[in-house]
Every structure is written in C-alpha cells, then in structure tokens.
User: What shape does this take?
Amino acid sequence: MTGGAADRDRRPPPLALTMGEPAGIGGEIALMAWRGRGSGGMPPFFLVDDPDRLRRLGAACGLDAPVEEIAAPGEAAGLFDRALPVLRERLAAEPVPGRLDARNAPAVIRAIDRAVALARDGAAAGVVTNPIHKTTLYEAGFRYPGHTEYLAELAGPGAGSVMMLACEALRVVPVTVHLSLRQAIAALTTEAIVRCGRVTAAALAGDFGIARPRLAVAGLNPHAGEDGHMGREEIEVIAPAVEALRAEGVQVRGPAPADTLFHEAARRTYDAVLCMYHDQALIPLKTVDFAGGVNVTLGLPFVRTSPDHGTALGIAGTGRASPASLIAALRMADRLARNRRAMSGALA
Assistant: This one.
C-alpha cells in the first residue's frame, strides 16, 4: 500500500449533516457552508437530503455549489473539494421555501435517524443537525420537545443528555430547558442540577479536552436569594447540589448572582455555567456571540452539534441567511470528535 493510500485510510470519517426543515434555511446554509470550505478549518461533511432539491435551491438562490450524490459516507471525503456530497433522503412533496408541509416531516425524522445510526456505526465522525420545525413533526407523530430529547431516545438507556450552548467566549448549560418560567421553577431539583453538573464536567474533560473543568452555578433569584430574603431555592435546592458535586470531585462554585456571572472578567474564572432556566443561559450566550453560538448535546455516545437558531422561514429561499452558526457547529463537532478519538487512543 502506498503512503498516500495509507494516509487516506487513517482519515477520520466525515460529519453527517441532517436536512432539517426543508422549507427553512437548512439547505441554503449547507450550500453556503460548503462554499466556504476554503476559508480554513472546515471539516469534510455530507448532507442527508434530496440532492435534486438542493440543486434547484442553489440555482434559485444564486449559489454556485455543485451537488453530488453519494451511496455511502466513505465517498464524501474524496469529492468534498469539488462538490457537496449528499446521501439521498427522498421527500414526499416538493418543498416551497417558507411554507411548511407536514408530508415531508417523516423524511426530516428519517434524516436524523440515519445520521445517528451512521455516527454510532463509525461511518460518520458526528452528527450536525439543521434546525427543525416541531409543529410539522408533531403532525407526523413526533412526541419529543426537541432534538435533544429525541437524540437521547436514539442513544438508548443510560444516555445522560444535557443541552449546552457554546461559543468561543462562553459555555452555558440550562438545567431546565423548554418549560415556562413557572414550570421551570417547579421542576428545579437538587438531583437535576447534580446530573447536569456531572454530565457537563465529564464532557468538558472528554470532549473539550479541559483537564480540570471549572463550573459556576447561577442562582435562581435576584442576588442569589439574598440569604433567603428573596427566595429560598438557593439555600434549599441549589447549594446542596453544589456541595454534592464537590463531594464527587467536581471543581464548582455557587450559587452566584446571575447578573455578575457573564461579564468578561467573570468568564475567565470558569469553563461553563449551570443556569437554572432557558433564558438565563441563552440571553448572555446570544448577547456575547449571536452568530457564532452552537447547540451541543452532552452525554451522548456520539458527537452532536447544531446551529443555535431556528428555521428562519421568513427569509428561506432568498439566499440572505447567514451560515455562520452552522459553520461554527461543523467546526465544533469536528473538534469534539477529534478530542474523543484522541482520548480513546490514549486509553487503548
């Protein structure tokens, strides 16, 4: 075997990118991401989608991006430089940008299923998911609040899935996610905080390569409860979780007032923040880096990232969508997958 052939055999597999909602911006930002492959740091990826609709979409949006159908992920790396590799997933109806069609929901779900199966089999380095529109999926029988919960189901028993939002300057983990504020407060428990902290610390070490992860834990109430005068959740729920994590060897501090946790100097004192509810996590992340935020699912047996935005139906098909978050998600998935392979090799 020649040296070149041996090098090709040692190449990591490509990333699997799902179609997402076909009426949204997923297809065009995938084409844009491929067009930006020469800017450096873009890992090879293939898209699970309908190649014919991508060709039509590229032409309509004025995107010069050749599309080539592949039969298996192993073909992607060899043609990535000249065309976007696409593993065909047939759609029931021709997508119209901006117009939801429940007939295509089964294909959206199948694309996720196929990408996960390929990642678990080692044919894909990880999964990057384009945004979905849950209303149409519910009409097709989808019963999960979102990607994170569905991926945990696909991962099987024992998967401790936790949602992280990450950019270069900040990582945040909401302990409660898709709940109203009233429901989130009622659902907040010491056990939930400990579970999130445990999974986050393990992922920071194994996926992000941080030898001694440092966690900060936000309080729920103003001034972190002001010693119980503005609420007792910090005393009765959050502080016991911090102590339990410390007892497990996690380097953690809190509960800390959320209004002092996210400025630049504070961000240098931790590697991730456990937040008590959705907006406590996402508002600072999107303020710090709106375009570069990435959704990462921690605790799965495969790498999964996603752009931190929705389907953007209002601008779908116009070519005006920004691929920045998808590009960041692809690059982060590649980095996490490489860290996992390095750790696996070190343990072998």
About this structure: Confidence is low (pLDDT under 50) at residues 1-9. The chain has 13 helices and twelve strands. The longest helix spans residues 324-347.
